[in-house]
């Protein structure tokens, strides 16, 4: 079966004092090709650990990940990643950053140039190709990060709170951009976020994770991502099911946080 | 031991007084110039940029920048103090009285064995410092009475003994003595003031002629600027001890560049290795951490024992001075790489070699440049010190050799050139840094 399969992943860290932390326990997800998945959860629920395992930066202590029937053992250009911030190369200009992946593979320069021009158009940075990274605003930098990831034509795009550091207006624009890219390219996208609204807007499937041990708490299949493609996201948020779902998930996470606080205090 | 310690403490306390006095004068001049400048400027329309509209400036470091007028007047003040203290000829008039140079005279009264008195004149010619080809005074042949006129040639600020009775009739007889100078009575071990100086009678009855010295500094301790400039021109054309001025400086620079180059050649890869591999970090860590705090100057004796005083010893010393700094700079550069950049590069399909050359190397350039600036400064200081100890050529060699002949002007020229070149190196490194790592501090 093709697609990305998360098969019974567990991740246990040993502490220096001999104790154990179960960052993830028996997590299984089947992700179909072209699916847009958002992962939400309180801090400490292991969602970043899960993403690092998916990217191949961490090896799980139990279970396995496979992409297109191949077991994941390390980072690879099949699984592109968009980081929150600071992962762009400041010593290169925008074009060089976007063309980094293809040039690592030895792609001919003319092909790289064509690909970069095409991607600059997709993320709306046509006029900034020669700018240095530190000359761009935070939103533009994340556009570059998206383009850089797309340049490699990965099968799966992993996003680790890519919009977390942006202001509300820029964030909304970037959310539309992510939906556009998803629709245009048909990529499988897994997005981790802290924001419940963002998770609702950018998830065909929304996975809510719970902490201690990190596990999947609940999954939702949502219509909002499909509705949001090419549409006004504020319109989507006025949908009659949007508000109640948001409130339900918010109180779910609120309860989890309360539980953690309570446990810490009694411990 | 306790007494010595006490002496040091007392000396230090006196130094506080002296340093405060010097700073006090300098600050007083600064305050004066400030008020004069503000007074002149208060009548002009002032430029009102964004910064001038800030109401909170005290404590806001960003609103403090070096005032150019203050910088220039500060440097001018240093030169002015130098000129005043040395009685420089560059000043339109002397602010402090300077040492007497030229011709003067006094009269002495001698009493011979018979009890008669007679007067004679002593002509004194005070010659300028270091100038030996002044015309000699000639004693007049004709003189009435038994006391005969004398002549004395004495160098500026020096004293000279004169046996005035030597040429007097009956001067060798028992009971012949000098009783008055310019009409004032004098006894052995007494001093009489005369025009442009004083005269001391020694215990044996000779006269010590002491021309007026004044409060200005002697050229031996601090030569006036014009003398230093003249010496600079002379050094520039003739060199010193057969080695040209710029040849000396070039040799110092060549050693620094070679030692620094070796330090970078080995230090940067070693630093990278220590930043990338646990075994190599463990292997080199004790050595690096031990050698880092050892000042390179402390290695000079060992280096001389091992390599002698030739070029190899100097370059080895500078290599050791630069090596540890470059290792630590490169290591810090590697550990400063944001992990998400490394993850991103691997996710984009980079190999380890590509990661090293395309991500880690450029990302650590700012740290490496900072280390290089420090290393260059340390190397420059070390080369001068090493040359002071033993060398055939070099800026340090030139000043230590000149100091042995009390050629203070050459020492000062050397110090100024060393300072200017040290500053120049740092400026060049900073320019290279701005050119090569424009993203520094903006990541």
In a few lines, what is going on in this structure?
With 267 residues, chain A is an alpha/beta fold. Chain A is built from 10 helices and 10 strands. A 6-stranded mixed beta sheet of chain A has the order 6-7-8-3-9-10, with helices on both faces. Chain A has a 4-stranded antiparallel beta sheet with strand order 2-1-4-5, covered by helices on one side.
Descriptive notes:
The complex is a heterodimer of chains A (267) and B (443). Chain A is of the alpha/beta class. Chain A has a domain at 1-46 and 190-251. Chain A has helices spanning 47-55, 94-98, 100-104, 109-122, 138-151, 168-185, 196-201, 224-228, 233-237, 242-266; strands spanning 4-14, 20-31, 36-40, 62-67, 70-71, 79-82, 156-160, 188-193, 205-210, 215-221. In chain A, the strands form 2 sheets. Chain A has a 6-stranded mixed sheet with strand order 6-7-8-3-9-10, sandwiched between helices. In chain A, strands 2-1-4-5 form a 4-stranded antiparallel sheet, covered by helices on one side. In chain A, a hairpin with a 5-residue loop joins strand 1 and strand 2 (20-31). In chain A, helix 4 (109-122) packs across helix 5. Chain A is globular and about 55 Å long. The model of chain A has no long low-confidence stretch (mean pLDDT 85). Chain B has 443 residues and is of the alpha+beta class. Chain B has 3 domains: 65-98, no CATH class; 102-211, no CATH class; 227-436, MetI-like (MetI-like fold, Orthogonal Bundle), CATH 1.10.3720.10. Chain B has helices at residues 2-41, 68-86, 225-238, 245-276, 278-291, 300-307, 311-335, 339-347, 352-389, 395-404, 408-436, and strands at 102-111, 117-127, 150-155, 160-162, 177-181, 184-185, 191-194, 197-201, 207-211. In chain B, the strands form 2 sheets. Chain B has a 5-stranded mixed sheet with strand order 3-2-1-5-6, with no helix packed on it. A 4-stranded antiparallel sheet of chain B has the order 4-9-8-7, with no helix packed on it. In chain B, a hairpin with a 5-residue loop joins strand 1 (102-111) and strand 2. Chain B is elongated. The two termini of chain B are 56 Å apart. The model of chain B has no long low-confidence stretch (mean pLDDT 88). The chains are: A alpha/beta (267), B alpha+beta (443). The interface between A and B is medium-sized, with 28 and 23 residues.
């Amino acid at each position: 079966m093709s697609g990305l399969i998360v098969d019974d992943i567990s991740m246990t860290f040993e502490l220096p004092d001999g104790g154990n932390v179960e960052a993830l326990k028996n997590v299984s997800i089947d992700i179909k090709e072209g699916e847009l998945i958002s992962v939400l959860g309180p801090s400490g629920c292991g969602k970043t650990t899960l993403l690092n395992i998916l990217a191949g930066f961490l090896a799980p202590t139990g279970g396995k990940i496979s992409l297109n029937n191949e077991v994941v053992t390390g980072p690879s250009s099949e699984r592109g990643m968009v980081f929150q911030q600071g992962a762009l190369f400041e010593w290169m200009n925008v074009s060089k950053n976007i063309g980094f992946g293809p040039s690592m593979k030895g792609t001919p320069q003319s092909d790289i140039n064509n690909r970069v021009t095409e991607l600059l158009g997709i993320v709306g940075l046509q006029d900034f190709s020669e700018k240095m990274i530190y000359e761009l605003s935070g939103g533009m930098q994340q556009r570059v990060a998206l383009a850089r990831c797309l340049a490699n034509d990965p099968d799966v795009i992993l996003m680790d709170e890519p919009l977390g550091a942006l202001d509300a207006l820029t964030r909304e624009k970037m959310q539309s951009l992510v939906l556009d890219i998803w629709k245009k390219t048909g990529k499988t996208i897994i997005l981790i976020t802290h924001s419940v609204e963002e998770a609702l807007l950018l998830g065909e499937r929304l996975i809510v994770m719970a902490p201690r041990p990190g596990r999947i708490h609940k999954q939702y299949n949502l219509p909002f991502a499909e509705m949001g493609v090419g549409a006004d996201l504020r319109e989507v948020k006025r949908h009659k099911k949007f508000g109640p779902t948001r409130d339900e998930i918010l109180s779910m996470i609120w309860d989890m946080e309360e539980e953690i606080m309570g446990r810490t205090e009694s411990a | 031991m306790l007494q010595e310690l006490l002496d040091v403490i007392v000396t230090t306390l006196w130094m506080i007084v002296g340093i405060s006095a010097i700073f006090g004068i300098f600050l007083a001049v600064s305050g004066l110039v400030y008020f004069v400048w503000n007074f002149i400027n208060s009548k002009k329309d002032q430029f009102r940029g964004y910064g001038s509209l800030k109401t909170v400036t005290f404590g806001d470091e960003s609103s403090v920048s070096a005032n150019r007028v203050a910088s220039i007047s500060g440097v001018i003040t240093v030169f002015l103090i130098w000129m005043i203290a040395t009685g420089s000829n560059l000043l339109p008039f002397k602010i402090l009285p300077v040492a007497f140079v030229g011709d003067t005279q006094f009269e002495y009264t001698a009493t011979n064995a018979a009890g008669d008195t007679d007067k004679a004149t002593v002509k004194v010619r005070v010659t300028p410092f270091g100038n030996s080809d002044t015309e000699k005074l000639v004693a007049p042949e004709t003189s009435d009475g038994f006391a005969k006129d004398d002549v004395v040639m004495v160098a500026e600020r020096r004293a000279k003994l004169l046996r005035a009775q030597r040429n007097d009739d009956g001067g060798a007889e028992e009971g012949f003595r000098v009783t008055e100078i310019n009409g004032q009575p004098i006894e052995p071990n007494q001093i009489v003031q005369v025009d442009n100086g004083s005269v001391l009678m020694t215990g044996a009855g000779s006269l010590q002629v002491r021309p007026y010295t004044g409060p200005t500094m002697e050229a031996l301790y601090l030569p006036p600027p014009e003398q230093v400039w003249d010496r600079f021109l002379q050094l520039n054309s003739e060199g010193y001890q057969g080695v040209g001025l710029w040849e000396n400086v070039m040799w110092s620079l060549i050693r620094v560049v070679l030692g620094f180059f070796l330090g970078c050649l080995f230090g940067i890869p070693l630093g990278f290795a220590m930043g990338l591999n646990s075994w190599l970090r463990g292997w080199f860590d004790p050595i690096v951490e031990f050698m880092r705090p050892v000042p390179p100057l402390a290695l000079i004796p060992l280096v001389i024992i091992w390599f002698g005083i030739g070029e190899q010893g100097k370059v080895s010393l500078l290599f050791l001075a630069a090596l540890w700094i470059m290792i630590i700079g490169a290591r810090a550069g590697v550990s400063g790489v944001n992990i998400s950049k490394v993850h991103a590069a691997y996710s984009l399909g980079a190999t380890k070699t590509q990661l090293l050359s395309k991500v880690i190397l450029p990302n650590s350039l700012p740290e490496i440049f900072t280390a290089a600036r420090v290393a260059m400064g340390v190397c420059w200081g070390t080369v001068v010190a090493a040359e002071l100890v033993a060398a055939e050529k070099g800026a340090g060699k030139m000043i230590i050799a000149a100091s042995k002949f009390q050629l203070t002007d050459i020492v000062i020229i050397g110090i100024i050139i060393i300072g200017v070149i040290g500053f120049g190196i740092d400026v060049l490194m900073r320019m290279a840094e701005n050119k090569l790592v424009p993203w520094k501090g903006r990541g």
